[in-house]
Amino acid sequence: MTSLEDLGIDFEELDIEGIKKKFPFLDTRKYFPVKLPDDPGFAEPTGDVVDGAIFIPESGHISDPQLSTHNLQRAAEARGGEFIFNAEVVEIRKKDGKVAGVTLKDGTRIDAPIVVNVAGPHSYIINRMAGVEEGMNIKTRALRQEVCHVPPPDGIDYQKEGVMISDGDIGCYSRPETGNHILVGSEDPACDEREWVDPDNYDKNFSKQWTAQVLREAQRIKGLRVPNQMQGVVDLYDVSDDWIPIYDQSDLPGFYMAVGTSGNQYKNAPVVGAMMAELIDKVEAGCDHDRDPVQFYMKYTGRTFNMGFYSRLRKINPDSSFSVVG
Ligand SMILES: Cc1cc2nc3c(=O)[nH]c(=O)nc-3n(C[C@H](O)[C@H](O)[C@H](O)COP(=O)(O)OP(=O)(O)OC[C@H]3O[C@@H](n4cnc5c(N)ncnc54)[C@H](O)[C@@H]3O)c2cc1C
User: Fold this and answer.
1) Per-residue pLDDT tens for 167-190?
2) Which of the 8 DSSP states describes residue 221?
3) From atom 21 of ligand 1, which residue's Cα is the shortest distance away?
C-alpha cells in the first residue's frame, strides 16, 4: 500500500463485507497454505475469512497481445524501423573485440554495431552464441507454464463482472478472457513443480497442473466447474535466477540484453524500450554502466530509476517473490 500511495495510484482497502458486496461470486474463506489436489486437506478452508483485499479501480489488462504488438511494430516502422519475420539468428558475429552483426539461418549476414538480445525463452541460447553468459552473475532459463481458460459459473458475465485477481491465498491469478471465459494462471507457489525445459523441445499438452489450477480457483469462485476439455495456453517464461529481468549491457561491447522477463513484463515493453535506448546511447558515449549505473528518468511518474537494479552482475535479490508476481 505504501508503494501505491507513493505513486499516487488510487486504491480501496476492502474488508470481507466490501469484497462480498463488490464481488458476490467470490468465496472469502482462507485456504492457505496453497496445496495440490492430492495433498491432504485440499479445498478445506483453513480460516473463516481471508485477511482482506486491495481493489485498484484503474488496473486492467490487454486482451489482445497480438494486436498491441502489431501496433508497436507499426509505430516502429513509422520511425524508420524494419522487421524481418521467420528468420532465425544462428550466429552473433564479432570483430576486433566488438559485436559486428548477426548471421541468419539462410546465410544472410546483417552487419550492425549494436545487437540487442530480446529472444525471450531462447535468451540464454543467444547469450551463449555471443559468448557473454559466463560473464553474467544472473542467468536465464526457460520455464514451462500452463494457463487455463474456463467458462464462468452459470449466470455470470465475467467480462463485465470479473476483474484481474492476484490471489496468494490459493496461489493463482485470474482475469476475464474473451468469449466470457476466466483465465487462470499459477502464482508459482512452492507446491507447483518448476519445469525447466529446452525451449525447442517441450511438451505442449496440458497436464494435471491444469486441473490443479482450476480446482484451486474453484475454491475462490463459487460454482466454478472443471470442464472435461482442457483449454488455454502452454508456453514458456524466460526466467532469471531471481525472477527479475536483466536490462543491461554485456561483456561484449555493442551487445545488450533485455531478457529474463519472468512472465510479467509484457506491459512494461514500451518503457523498457525507452530505457534500453537510453542505456545504449549512454554506454556507447562512454558511460561505465557497471560501475556508475545509468539513472533513467520516468516522465509520467517524475521519478528517477537506477538501472543498476537490473544488472547482470547483481547478487540474487532476496526481496524478490521468486514468482511471476516479480
Ligand atoms: C503463459 C504466459 C503468460 C504471460 N502473462 C503475462 C501477463 O499477464 N502480463 C505480463 O506483463 N506478461 C506476461 N507474460 C510475459 C510476457 O509474455 C513476456 O514478458 C514478453 O512476451 C517478453 O517480450 P519479448 O519481446 O522480450 O520476448 P518474446 O515475446 O518471448 O519474443 C521473443 C522472440 O524472439 C524470437 N527468437 C528466439 N530465438 C530467436 C533466434 N535465434 N532468431 C530469431 N528470433 C528468435 C522468438 O521466436 C520470439 O518471437 C506471460 C508469458 C507467458 C509465457
Assistant:
1) 999 999 999 999 999 999 999 999
2) B
3) 266
Place of cell 542467468: 139
- pLDDT at residue 63 above 90? no
* Ligand 1 atom at shortest distance from the alpha carbon of 258: 26
**Mean pLDDT along residues 229-241:** 97
C-alpha cell at 250: 554485456
User: What is the location of CATH 3.30.9 in the chain?
Assistant: 2-59+147-187+208-228
pTM tops 0.90 = yes
Task: Tell whether ligand 1 has an atom less than 6 A from the beta carbon of residue 246.
Answer: no
In CATH terms, the superfamily for domain 72-139+242-310 is FAD/NAD(P)-binding domain (3.50.50.60)
Burial class (CB in 10 A: 0-12, 13-18, 19+), 81: exposed
Question: How many CB atoms sit inside 10 A of residue 66's CB?
Answer: 8
Banded pLDDT at 294 (limits 50, 70, 90): very high
Residue in 102, 110, 122, 247 to alter for ligand 1 test, most ligand atoms within 8 A of Cβ: 122
CB-ligand 1 contact for 122 (6 Å cutoff): yes
Q: How far is the CA of 192 from the centre of ligand 1 (A)?
A: 22
Q: Which fold has domain 2-59+147-187+208-228?
A: D-Amino Acid Oxidase; Chain A, domain 2 (3.30.9)
Q: How far is the CA of 266 from the centre of ligand 1 (A)?
A: 8
pLDDT score at 41: 96
Atom of ligand 1 nearest to the CA of 121: 30
Q: What share of the chain is helix, strand, coil (3-state, %, to 5)?
A: 25, 25, 50
What is the whole-number distance in angstroms between the Cα of residue 149 and the centre of ligand 1? 20
Query: Could you tell me how many residues make up the chain?
Result: 326
